[in-house]
Amino acid sequence: MRVEFAQAIIDQYNFQSQQVFLTGDLGYMALEQVGNTFGERFINAGVAEQNMVSMAAAMAYEGFIPWVYSISPFVTLRPYEQIRNDVCLHNLPVKLVGNGGGYGYGIMGATHHNLEDIAAMRVLPHMKVYLPLTGSDIANVVATMLQDPAPNYLRLNQGRDIEGLSSFAPWRHVRKGEGAVVIGAGPVLANVLDLPQDITEQLDIWALGTLPVTEIPEALIGAIVRTGKVITIEEHYAAGGLGEYLAGILLARNIGVPLRWKSLHAQGYPNDRYGSQQWHQELNGLRGQLLQQQITTILQ
Amino acid sequence: MADDNIRYINLCTRALSIKKRFLLMYSRANAGHIGSSLSAAEILTFLFFEWMQDKDEFILSKGHAAAVLYSTLAEKEWLSEEDIDSFYQNDTFLAAHPPANKLPHIPFATGSLGHGLSLAAGIGMARRLKQSEDRVFCVTSDGELNEGSIWEAAMFIAHHQLRRVVWIIDKNNLQGFGSTQEVMNLDPLADKLRAFQFDCLEIDGHNFEAWREAMDYASTCTKPLAVIANTIKGRDWATYENKLDSHYLPFKELQYEETLQRLEHQHREQVAKYHN
Ligand SMILES: Cc1ncc(C[n+]2csc(CCOP(=O)(O)OP(=O)(O)O)c2C)c(N)n1
Known about the structure:
The complex is a heterodimer. Chain A is built from 13 helices and 12 strands. Chain A has helices spanning 2-12, 32-38, 49-61, 72-76, 80-88, 117-122, 138-147, 190-193, 197-200, 218-227, 242-253, 277-283, 288-299; strands at residues 19-23, 42-44, 65-71, 95-99, 128-130, 152-156, 171-175, 180-184, 203-208, 210-211, 229-237, 260-266. Chain A is globular and about 60 Å long. Chain A is of the alpha/beta class. The model of chain A has no long low-confidence stretch (mean pLDDT 97). In chain A, strand 1, helix 2 (32-38) and strand 2 form a beta-alpha-beta unit. Chain B is an alpha/beta fold. Chain B has helices spanning 3-29, 34-51, 66-75, 81-85, 116-129, 148-159, 180-183, 189-195, 208-218, 245-248, 255-275, and strands spanning 57-60, 136-141, 165-171, 174-175, 178-179, 199-204, 225-230. Chain B has a 5-stranded parallel beta sheet, with helices on both faces. In chain B, strands 4-5 form a two-stranded antiparallel sheet. In chain B, helix 1 packs across helix 3 and helix 5 runs parallel beside helix 6 (148-159). Chain B starts with a helix and ends with a helix. The model of chain B has no long low-confidence stretch (mean pLDDT 97). The A-B interface holds A 23-29, 31, 44, 46-48, 50-51, 73-74, 78, 107-112, 269, 272-276, 279 and B 63, 88-97, 99-102, 109-114, 143-144, 146-148, 175-178, 182-184, 244, 247-248.
């Protein structure tokens, strides 16, 4: 999604004249063209994320719309209080962009992963989180973020294209089925689509694209009531993640049916070992055999 | 031959072995960060084979150079060659950055820049409280000094006179997306460190004789010591020596073999020099 992101930023440059782009000393073979396009409005703020975020807040106060780019943990967790106090408390249009997220940085290891970003970002006042599913979502997301006068966080990851996917929206109905509802966010959802067809055709699959969740589509409520089964999937810890969040919302809606609920989420580093993003997903039951088993169990 | 010369030959030979091991690791893994490890190779060689004592602790704050650390630990026989072979493979302890929990002589997971010097300060303070004289050596990069946390740690170390902490700065003048001159000028770095009340040395970080002098000097210091090791990123990787690309690119085609040849050649010259 990083390539699409750079392209989208370049495409938007002429339409929104208040943009500035700050990077935390990253962008080799990725942001060179953004730099050329933005000229003096492209600022390498160095390896100094806390300073970069507070500066961005102040530039937003001065009327700019700052993009703030780094690897996901370094643009969310490292400058967390700067985001809370300087950006969110003041409801300023700072656009945080985290490359990676989940196990996206694979073999780079735990310091480069982010299994807490959704929880950390979604609880902040005014903050809106964007969780694109595929690269083709990005142009739309970037345009939407530029319209949004609030603080935003964009989680970029590797995403394969999904055939027949409608354009980016807070909720998308990805596939129809009658066995169980699956709700997911981000490219990890595609791992469900990759399961054998006799499984996927039983699944009613929904993609959540933005947080906070302001409403739940009636069609989704209908599917939950009909199937009585909900599976959530996210490349993130359970605590503060999608599963917990949606469970709370549905409980409050009092939909009145007993549900079988299964949250599929990251466990972290159960054996202290590392590998590719796919390997971590498999180990955590977010992909392949183990994912299939868990979904099959729920379907039975 | 003078004892000293034998010592230098041994160090050069250790360095060659450490470099050869991590270059093979990078080559097999088709991985980047080669330049970052080449930059720090003599620093780690000297620390682990000359300066550090048994109970001294080491923190590689520039965690992205993990391969030079793993290779040095293997040279010490603290990691097995089997461990080394697993670098970058699925199901490995040896991720691209030093991991948490599992490995001897790696006290903390690093990789997020700007943590290591604070960890060193904590170890230094703890050891003072425990009335232990054991030291902690911390290697940071230069781009890493952009992080405010580095200067928080520096102030603390100096204020508390934590002479058990030895801070080494791998100053290769390149960082993540440009040179330090372009991105965030650090100079005059020695003046900054002295103003922070460090004793500060600037040395050729690839030269073991300079390291010997630094080590001897350390025992006479009355303040905490910071060593600015002037280094070359990607040293001896002909194509990308002293270039930003050496941070990111893996070896292509014959670059691995060419680099090895250059290192072997250089080593023969070093040995010859100390034989005379
Ligand atoms: C907190 C944090 N921000 C950003 C990065 C991404 N990053 C990895 S290495 C690097 C800069 C490399 O330059 P330098 O620190 O000088 O290391 P060296 O040249 O010795 O390899 C950056 C920005 C990081 N690892 N941690």
